[in-house]
Design goal:
With about 300 residues, the chain is an alpha+beta fold. It has 3 domains: about 100 residues, eubacterium ventriosum atcc fold (Sandwich), CATH 2.60.480; about 60 residues, Type Iii Antifreeze Protein Isoform Hplc 12; about 50 residues, SH3 type barrels, CATH 2.30.30.760. It has 5 helices and 21 strands. Strands 10, 11, 12, 13 and 14 form a 5-stranded antiparallel beta sheet that branches. The longest helix has 16 residues. The N and C termini lie far apart (about 75 Å).
Amino acid sequence: MFLLIFLGILHAADVTFVNEVTTVAHENILLMDLASVSNLSPALEEKVLKTVIFTTQEALETLEISNLDLLKKVKPAVAAQATGASEMATNWVYFLPGKIRIKRTTSQISELRLQNLVKLDLQKKCPSCLIKSVTIKRPEMVGTLVSWSLDFQNIPVQKNFLVPLKMVKAPKTEETLWLNIQAGIFQEGFKTTALVSRDQRLGEKDVKKESIEIGNFKDRLATWEEIQTSRMNKSLSVNQPILLSDLQKDFFVNRGQVVKIISGSDQFEVSSQATAEDAGYFGDLIKLKSLDQKRTLSGIVIEKGLVRIQ
């Protein structure tokens, strides 16, 4: 049986508790061991999840606590962590089972803590992403755990990946286990509405915007501005996500092109023509040759076929 508690006003932040958890005996029990949080900014979510609910002195080997007693511990602790945040006017919604059972062991890290830490790392790397789920497969853990950490260096934002869990076990044995992660990551992006061809320019009728699950992509999703200023680098079938690598940008100036060059100020401007020795996009510095081939110039590309001489 679940207890649903509403606290506060304005937008709702959900705090959903599990009914049973196993944690390492010598560690404080944090909110992230017991619950998941949603509808908060990543910064406040991390702060709230790191709230200490039970210290090592309070937590017995096995602890069973009713939802109301747990709520008495959680509410003031969360309020203290969130003090001063812009989202303090949040409507806190707590979902709690009738009882929560906490088991303390020498070797088992809370599954929910691992999931929350992975989610927080993904949110930091992709602030515009929505992390809907995190599933972890891990080898069996044995021995007495002294300390542990997750190494998120070089971890990609994609559906499947591995995270090293670095441990120190008693007496002083170092060991690394690999966690197999499957994450449900969604981001606003664009999909094709029909078959598109290589070198095709896409318009509004060729794409649709929707929340896209990020698979094991080798590149990020393209923005609308990038789609508008590029041509297709490959053909795509209908309903395919458009990645940045699927596009090739149009040069504003092509190598060998005769372009207009300008120099001077707003009050006095001189224009002429020159041949581009480099191709360039907007803002690129390129080399040019005067039409009589006697002078080498350099300038900034400011429009298609237009370069401001430095």
